[in-house]
Predict the structure of MBL fold metallo-hydrolase.
Amino acid sequence: MKTRKKVVVWLLSLAAALAVGAWLVVRLPSFGGVPEGARLERMRQSKQFHGTRFENTPPYESNLSFVREMKSYFGDEVREPQFEVPVVRLPAEQLGRPVAPGLRAWWLGHASVLLEIDGVRILTDPVLSRRVSPFQFAGPARQHPAPLAIGELKNVDAVVISHDHFDHLDMDTVQALGRGGTHFYVGLGIGAHLERWEVPAAQIHEMDWWDSAQVRGVTIHCTPARHYSGRKSMNNSTLWASWLLKGPNHSAYFSGDTGYADHFKAVRERLGAPQLSMIKIGAYGDTWLDIHMSPESAIQAHRDLDAGTLLPVHWGTFNLAYHAWDEPMVRAVKAAKAQGVQIVTPRPGEKFEVGAPFVNQAWYSKAAR
C-alpha cells in the first residue's frame, strides 16, 4: 500500500512539474502576446469574429484522421532536396539603394518576398531565422540558406503579415525590422505579438479585411483568406489575411496561407487585377485542402484574380508537409502550362522584374540539372 501511494505521489508530482514547465514555456517571448483592452474590443467588432474567436465563412470543419495522418507521415516521399539549392545571394548594398520606379520581386524562401513597388520597399511574411519554431535549437530547419541575413535588413518601408504561425511571423526578423523603423501591417490581434517584441506602437497597423492604408503613394489593402491562427494552439485568436499592394502604376497580390475559395474573385472585383500574384503552392495534403490549397488550386486562384504573372511561394524552404520537396513546383508549372498562365520559377534570391525578360530554369528538379 505504501509503495502504491508513493507511485501515486510521484505521478502527481511529475504531472504538476510538467504542467508548470508547459506554463513557463508558453510564456516565452517567442509565443507572442495576448490581445486585451482596446485591441480586443476592436477584434470583437469584426464581422469575422464570432464568440471568442475568428472564423472562416463557412467555418472550417476539420476532417483530420490520426490514422491517415500517420500513414502520410511515414510515406516514402523525398521531402528534402538531394542537392545544394542554388541560392542567389542578395547583395547587402541592395537595401541601401533608393527604390527605383517599377515592380521587382526577390523570393527569399517560403512565403518571404522582398518587393519594390513604385518607389516603396515591402516585405511579405519575413522569416530569415534558421528554424520556424519557438526555439532555435529545435523545429523545422531551413533547407537552404536565406539569400539575406537578418543583420542586413534595413530601409524596408513596410511589412505585411498574413497570419501568426511560426513559419510566417518570426520574432527575430520582426525585432530587427522594428529597430530599423519598418512599419507593420497585420491582421487584427497580431499587434499584441509585435508589442511584446518591443516594436513601437506607432509602427503597428492592425487591419480588418477590406481595410486599407497608405505608404508613400502605395495603398496596402487587407483582403480575405481562408485559414486559421494561433501560436500556442489553433485557437483562431488573431485574424489571417491576404494582401493587395497597389501603387500608382503597379500592383501585386500576396495570398498568405489559404484554402481555395471565392475570395480571389472578390479581390479582383473590388480592387482590380494585379500585375503580379504571389500565391502559396506548397504544404498541402488531402485533409488540409480547406485551409492549404493544392498547386492546381493556386493556378485557378491566379486566374480568378486575372493576374499577370504568378510567382509561386510557400514551398521548398521548410519540410512542413508530406509531399515530395519539388512536387509543388512541378505540379504548379504543369498546371500553369495547361491553363496558359504565365509563371516564373526564380531561384531563392533571384530577381524578377515585371516587364523585363526572365528565363525559367527547372533548378528544383534533380533530373533537369
Q: What stands out?
A: The mean pLDDT is 90. Residues 92-368 form a domain with the Metallo-beta-lactamase; Chain A fold (CATH 3.60.15.10).
